[in-house]
Amino acid sequence: MAEHTLILGGARSGKSAWAERQASAWAAEAPGREVVVIATGEARDEEMRARIAAHQAQRPAGWQTVEAPLALAEALAAADGPQRLLLVDCLTLWLTNLLLADLPPELDLDSVRALQPGPRWQAGRAALLAVLPRLQAPVLLIGNEVGHGIVPLGAVNRLFVDESGRLHQALAAQCARVRFVMAGCVLPLQG
User: Fold this and answer.
1) Which of 27, 35, 83, 145 could cross-link 63 (Cys pair, CB 3.0–4.6 Å)?
2) What pLDDT is attached to residue 87?
């Protein structure tokens, strides 16, 4: 079984840059190794397009990119291979995409007092947790740690924070290593 790494940190903490350095070092260890980036962000506006372009520009030219805003487990399974490392950037956007996909478009978010995880999120989370132990490739999973602050206002925000924390706990239980990145400094939490 491949060893996986969960990489957590805040926005602009350096977690993607650190993960990319780890992937580059892994690829350089032996000829024929490939890195596949599983990107979960969607370019829905100009700011997001610029963020995606900046991430793409800093990656080595030979890396492949697979876009998987919703079907993360399926993308991991399809990209798997013994000479590959899979870098997921990022879990937080994937969670957001699935939580929003479960909400009915007519829902008045200002009047909602509580929300439960929807079927698409539950199925996506279960599929991710099921596929990880079966992968031949090591996986670097990047996610934003958002549970350090106060409980946010709004049912959707609280659902997001709760599900993010639950996802990270479940992934940490399956990963050989967990790293926390802050100000570009890496703190080993596990492994």
Assistant:
1) 35
2) 98
DSSP output for 2-48? ---EEEEE-TTSSHHHHHHHHHHHHHHTSTT-EEEEEE-----SHHH
Query: Where does residue 45 rank: exposed (0-12), middle (13-18), buried (19+ CB within 10 A)?
Result: exposed
Picking from 56, 72, 52, 46, the residue whose alpha carbon sits closest to that of residue 139 is 72
Which residue in the block uniquely carries the two structure tokens 């100000």? 183
Instruction: Decide if 55 is catalytic.
Output: yes
Catalytic residue among 4, 55, 148, 168: 55
**Residue bearing tokens 């997921």:** 88
CA distance 21 to 11: 18
CA 139/CA 120 separation, integer angstroms: 23
